[in-house]
Amino acid sequence: MPVAASAIYFLNLRGDVLINRLYRDDVGGNMVDAFRMHIMQTKELGTCPVRQIGGCSFFYMRISNVYIVIVAVALFKSYFGGAFDEDAIRNNFVLIYELLDEIMDFGYPQNLSPEILKLYITQEGVRSPFSSKPSDKPVPNATLQVTGAVGWRREGLVYKKNEVFLDIVESVNLLMSSKGSVLRCDVTGKILMKCFLSGMPDLKLGLNDKIGLEKESQLKSRPTKSGKTIELDDVTFHQCVNLTRFNSEKTVSFVPPDGEFELMKYRITEGVNLPFRVLPTIKELGRTRMEVNVKVKSVFGAKMFALGVVIKIPVPKQTAKTSFQVTSGRAKYNAAIDCLVWKIRKFPGQTEPTLSAEVELISTMAEKKSWTRPPIQMEFQVPMFTASGLRVRFLKVWEKSGYNTVEWVRYITKAGSYEVRC
């Protein structure tokens, strides 16, 4: 069952109501007093943005010196030139009331896009001297933008050079046991795009996902070509993607917004290609000495390389002195985080650098407690590599004028929570 907003309130830091709009009659005027007494005065604002008091749920956030309960902040910032505070609200009462009437219908959110609302709410807000200047953009057909299927792109765009940039950015998460078995592994990814295209182009993106390839082979009545296919989980798309076409043909077809946007998100849980394997050996020699040996193997291709590799190897809190030998990069002891920090600026593929360290510990008279070894953590970026194996098979652009386009595709894999128990 969809949930509707009964009211929207703008409060200052004292809890005084600056402006409000009631959409339903199922709440009384004492809801502000409840918010002030149970949330503002108890100093629990930072714990959770959603609180339930009695039969009412409060969704709130603080921007500058204003508390907002159920509202889209980016919309008002766009009208006020980036400034959003108590003075901006007091200077724009009429405009705010008009916006609140447009963005909500009986408590249900409607159109929250500043670009579309500015097509028919043309009044400009009173801007502060420190706000950014309004951009002088041509105003397109408001009726088409509000009622048509392409409300995220305006007409009449013209570029001398038509280009499309596509980035596949993945974060690989790993938890490996001390014996080398994988306890948890998954990849979260997103496809970012930047489009500089004239007119109203139609784009079609093909990936090496299993469902899409099988559907394509059925439509073309020919077997699927050999090669790695992957199964995408938890896929979410930008509103520009034609979902009807995706459900029937399993292809990502869309009319892109102008500039930068996030086309889709996904998750992979099977067949993950781990970029690194960490082989640690930690020996405790009595109560005052430790030997640490760590080998890190890059599993990706020899022509590739990782950047900004950081390996954090935990040591006990009573560490007094350390000495290192590394075959690549630099290492040092960081007492603030109780770790040996090994940094390699450029890590080539198919290599196995090693770290050997001797750790001297402070001897204490207190009863010895067993050291619970935290996991080794890694940070890295690997350009032109995807841990999921996702690849772009094609990126096609159609536009009625038939202009030529230049497509750029990049891949990058970053470390999410990449941990190896030692």
From TrEMBL:
This is Clathrin adaptor complexes medium subunit family protein isoform 2. InterPro entries: Adaptor_comp_med_subunit (IPR050431), AP2_Mu_C_sf (IPR036168), AP2_Mu_N (IPR043532), Clathrin_mu (IPR001392), Clathrin_mu_CS (IPR018240), Longin-like_dom_sf (IPR011012), MHD (IPR028565), Mu2_C (IPR043512). Keywords: Cell membrane, Coated pit, Endocytosis, Membrane, Protein transport, Transport. Transmembrane segments: none annotated. Belongs to the adaptor complexes medium subunit family. It holds the Pfam family Adap_comp_sub. The keyword Iron-sulfur does not apply. GO terms for cellular component: clathrin adaptor complex; clathrin-coated pit; plasma membrane. It is a peripheral membrane protein. CDD domains: AP-2_Mu2_Cterm, AP2_Mu_N. GO terms for biological process: endocytosis; intracellular protein transport. Its main location: membrane. It is found in: Cell membrane; Membrane, Coated pit. It comes from the Eukaryota.
